[in-house]
Amino acid sequence: MAQESLVSIVRTHGGLPVALSACAMGMGLFIGWWLTVIGIGSIMISVIGMVTEYEKPISNSSH
Amino acid sequence: LKAARLAPYIFVLLWSTGFIGAKFGLPYADPFIFLSLRIFIAAVILFLVALIVQAPVAIGAKAVRSSMLIGFFLHACYLGGVFFAISEGLSASVAAVVTSLQPVLVSLLAVRLLGEKLKKAQIAGLVIGLIGVIMVLGPTLKSEVPITGLLGVAVALVGSTSATLLQKKIGTGIPILAGTAYQYLASGSVLALAAVTTGGVTIEWSPKFILAFIWLIAVLSVGAVLLLLWLLNTGSAATVSSLFYLVPPATAVEAYFLFGEKVDTQGLIGIAVTALGVWLVIRGAS
User: Fold this and answer.
1) Has the ipTM of the complex gone over 0.85?
2) Which helix (H) or strand (E) holds B35?
3) 3-class secondary-structure state, position A60
């Protein structure tokens, strides 16, 4: 779907993407900065996904 | 194990890196303008995300007012107070110990204002947690205590306590993305005013500062703050507040790995004692 965003995808998986992102960030400190950068990006997306998991999207349709 | 149960510990991990980020960033910028800019950018990000994921943005005048009030206490008073105190020469560890009184204050006031009930084990956990924090930070508490710095950290303590109770009392029904963005708009304006009033509007855009800045926006202002508000919406104020006890030990462990700052035996015992205290509070709530 065109309106499907990354945030919408991680919404359906609750806390798991957040945990994985935090792991990536932490491991990045030992493996390399590139992994930390990926972790930072994914933690933003996954946290937003988790906290909005139960918020209903605004309906665009008028019917 | 449901992965969302890890959220409190991920919150502690993310929140604790704020002190590391501040340590990297503060030498290159005046505190209030640093905070203000960080918060305004986070507000823009959250508004954009809310639009992208079709979360509510027009949340009503009452919710906007409530969000702005919570934001004033949480970001302007708490963050502004801590940054001001440290810039006035108060050591970060003294600031951490004073602000660590927050869980005790929140728990006591939550009983009175929110009708939350505390079991004996939870009260014991709060006391044990505070003892643990003092043990972790004890060896670093030898610095001078400037009065203005102490005032700053007192404002921070009142701010974080009020914000936690207000979020629980009037903030739980507010859509989290837009609500947080409005919090940032209000607190960013207050901090910008503080920056202009004090004349501290200098920022040196060095690579180190930019990295710290990006870290603080993405990991703290978006990740950790959203997790904190979500935890407050779904758990009790006392339980969530007790997590703040774990922040100084987590910072100590991070400082060991990042800067080689050693944790002595007293610190290690303090970390264990703190963890025991938080476990007692969380176990009592479940």
Assistant:
1) no
2) helix B31-52
3) coil
